[in-house]
Each structure stands twice: as C-alpha cells, then as structure tokens.
TrEMBL record:
This is DUF3267 domain-containing protein. InterPro entries: DUF3267. The chain crosses the membrane at residues 21-43, 49-75, 106-128, 134-153. Signal peptide: none annotated. The keyword Transmembrane applies. It comes from Planococcus halocryophilus. Pfam families: DUF3267. Keywords: Membrane, Transmembrane, Transmembrane helix.
C-alpha cells in the first residue's frame, strides 16, 4: 500500500477558520430553513417545551458521534473514543480508527449523521409546524457540526474506488494498493 493523499483539515484551514465557516454555514441553514418553513406554514409558533429543546441541543453532538460509529460497528476492536476539552470548556468527542477502513465504509460513516439526523429534524419540523423554529435551530446547529464531514466527503469522493482510509497523527491518509502488473 502507498499513500495517495493525506487530508488534514486543521492544518489546511486552521481551527479558527473552520469554526467561522461552520458558524456561517449554520446561520445560512437556519435562515433558509426558518424562512422556508414560515412561508409554507402559517401556524403560530409555540415556546412550550423549551427545556426539551435545550436537552435536544445538548444531545445532538453525542448522537452525531454515535451515528458516526454505527457504520464502523464491524471494526469496533480498532476504534478508540477520546474526550477532550475544546476552548477549556466544551467537551470534544473524537473517534479514532487504528486500522485502515475501506473507502465506502468510511464515506458511509461520514454521511450517516448528516442523512439520519437532518431527515429526522426536517420530518419533525413538517409534522409539528408550531415548533418548526426549534427544529430549524437544531438543523442549523447539526449542519454546522457536519461541515467538516462534508469537506472530508468532498475530498474522499475523488479518491480511487478501492482505497483504504487510515487515520494518523497527520490526518487521514488515503491508501491505495500497488498496481499489479
């Protein structure tokens, strides 16, 4: 196996720039979702269940990380969870893989939280239009969380079909088997 490409978003973009792009992406998603839902539904908005909204807001991040884990369930012996503090306050959960994973499985792992949680949030906002503002905020927050996954998906989509993805200290390495003569 040889390394076709290494992807390190923190080195390429920097934490501050990624955070800013993510925040702007979340604001854009909120504006689009909220305006779209208020145009479609004329239902008065309710501020009931604000505590449930706060709990959902706190639960989205761990649920997002859990959904990354589900497609990698067969590799559970090589997975490692690490919890760190970001900006000295916010806990950050990292999922590290100790062995190379097939590209398709890694892409599925990256896309699962985006597809599952966003589908649930959009469906709930349509089913419960009185609380659509809550769901628009949750959707925006989750889309902001998914931005790095989307960037990784974009980079990995251009890689060779039968590549393996390995996580190292320098980022994600795209490994390709040697060409047989």
């Amino acid at each position: 196996m040889h390394c076709w490409k290494t992807i390190n978003l923190k080195k390429q973009y920097g934490f501050d720039r990624l955070f800013m792009i993510s925040a702007l992406f979340g604001i854009a998603v909120f504006m689009t979702a909220y305006i779209g839902l208020t145009i479609i539904y004329a239902t008065p908005l309710s501020d009931q269940y604000f505590l449930f909204f706060i709990l959902a807001l706190l639960g989205i991040y761990p649920l997002h990380k859990l959904l990354h884990f589900l497609p990698l369930i067969g590799c559970h012996k090589s997975l490692k969870f690490i919890i760190r503090k970001q900006m000295k306050v916010c806990p950050s959960i990292s999922l590290h893989i100790n062995e190379p994973v097939p590209k398709i499985r890694f892409l599925l792992s990256l896309a699962t939280p985006f597809l599952v949680l966003n589908t649930v949030l959009v469906t709930l906002s349509v089913m419960l239009p009185a609380f659509s503002h809550y769901f628009a905020m949750l959707l925006a927050y989750h889309c902001a969380l998914c931005l790095t996954d989307i960037i990784y998906l974009r980079n990995l989509a251009r890689s060779p079909k039968y590549a393996l993805i390995e996580e190292t200290e320098t980022g994600f390495e795209i490994l390709v088997p040697p060409v047989m003569s």
